[in-house]
Amino acid sequence: MNHALFSRTGRLTRRDFALTLGVISGGVFFAMLALCYLLFPLTASAAVSFFRDSTEVFFTVYIAAFLGLNLLLYALIPPLAIPAVVRRLHDLGHGGGWAAPMLLLCVPVLLLMLLPVCIFIGILNEIIGPSFPLWNGTTEAFASAVAASMGIALLLFFLLFLPLACWLGWLFLKKGKPEANRWGDPPVEEVLPPTRAAYFSCAGTVTRTAFIRRSLLLLLVLGLVLPPAAQLILQSMAGVFMILVAAIPEAARILATVIIILFVLPFVLFPLPLLPLVRQRLRTLGHSPYEAFLPFAVLLPPLITPLPFARLFSYEVLMEGSTVTDGALQSAVDSMIGVPSILLWTLCGILSLIGIIRLLANDDISYRRESSDESEVHDVLPKM
Q: Cβ atoms within 10 A of the Cβ of 146, count?
């Protein structure tokens, strides 16, 4: 197999092109999740240490940084995908210059980055005050700047969407040339292993390269499918929860906590189906199967952090529309970004980092020789 995802030589079939883009997008999605996790202890520590009004600063900085960094990561997908697009064009008999339209996909995303920057500058200026102005214009000028940046980005998006969608559809659906051309012979698609054995079985072994690619591809699919599907199911059950709250007012606070936790769970626990793949990798390396829980240690803090907010919602808030008092909200935020919470996020992050590093260790030499002789291990992508 050609393990170079970013090689621009050779040709790529439709299936291999889709899988390659899936792995690249999965890598960007993993980076997004890592940044989301890393931002919490960093912004919480900065807000508590350097600002008097830590609550407002924390949410402002976290939301602005989250939006800005994620938009930047999404803008990296088109340039990273260009080598795969070039090889796909070679299979269609065209030169790599036709891959240039991919860069146009970055323009609306980069323009949208003006939004979190404006939010950060505007709100932080309100917090710090006129003694250190970050935004010298009026509120109306600030709103106009935000609206203009959003309008230009959305206009470009709609103008580029249809032609680029047609162009990408042509890349995905057009069958490659069956004969050899100046970019090489027609690519041969390797038979992939069964999905259950490759992704959802704890038995067997897997090479490092195959593990990385399968994990990124599966993580992308899980992130796109499980949270929305779980939210649809939970929203359909929301009426049942409200009936229970009305029928048992004494247990309203407990039921409210359960409801909020259930809505948070899909967004936190969706990577857990990667556990069988992690077990395969640990078996390959000869490590203890109990180490499989180390990479998932980062899932614990997001489950505990919302609990103070869940306790705020009583029967009156859920059923009668009462508001939460400022003191109770401030207390919940203080517990969320306090020192114990920061230490928990940091400790779990270190444990997960150790687990991931151990999973990415080099394959044992004897295992590599055995797998090459018996051909037991297949990659997620066929040979190119």
A: 16
